[in-house]
Amino acid sequence: MGPEILRDLTFDIPKRSFQFLTGPSGAGKTTLLRLLFMSLRPTRGMIRSFGRDITEIPREELPLLRRRVGIVFQDFQLLDHLTTYENVALPLRVRGKDEASYKQDVLELLKWVGLGERINVLPAILSGGEKQRAAIARALIDRPEILLADEPTGNVDPPMARRLLSLFLELNRLGTAVVIATHDLALMEQVDARRMILSEGRLDIYE
Questions:
Q1: Mean pLDDT by groups of 10 residues along the chain of 207 residues
Q2: Looking at residue 69, what DSSP letter applies?
Q3: Of 78, 83, 158, 195, which has the highest C-beta tally within 10 A?
Q4: What is the pTM of this model?
Q5: What is the dotted CATH code of the domain comprising 1-68+144-207?
């Protein structure tokens, strides 16, 4: 099956916590986020998510559990033919929800991330920072208990990185646990938070 990317990790993500996941490129940060998001299953060992062993959860139940976890991908994964509003509303729309039940929530969320004036704009027109904020809003539309962000400041300048960090901190203050995967030391130095450092497949934690 090839070499193990991660091995013998033991850690938890407490409710309402804030932490950075860091380590060199190729250390397995994205793989660990995918395991936490339940889009990957471990080849051995156990991951408990919301009190349940994910290897024992039937596949048809996983999408329901994943709604409790928001994820912001490194490459945004916005759909080019949809407006900012439509991209953020997409998770609710694909589940068949009536637009009247979520329209106000989407508009308020876009306002909160600073995109209130960009709701009808296609991704091609958005800047890198705006795309990142749209991706954050989409991850939050289901009001997740945990937010996973994969290199959220990798494609933006330092002032925008600070603005994105303030959004994550505000979200954490509102009760969501946040995990930010990053190799941006300047970003991590702005917050006194737990650091989880991946190296050669193993994890060290510094509180």
A1: 81 95 91 92 88 88 91 91 96 92 95 94 94 94 94 86 91 95 92 94 90
A2: E
A3: 78
A4: 0.91
A5: 3.40.50.300
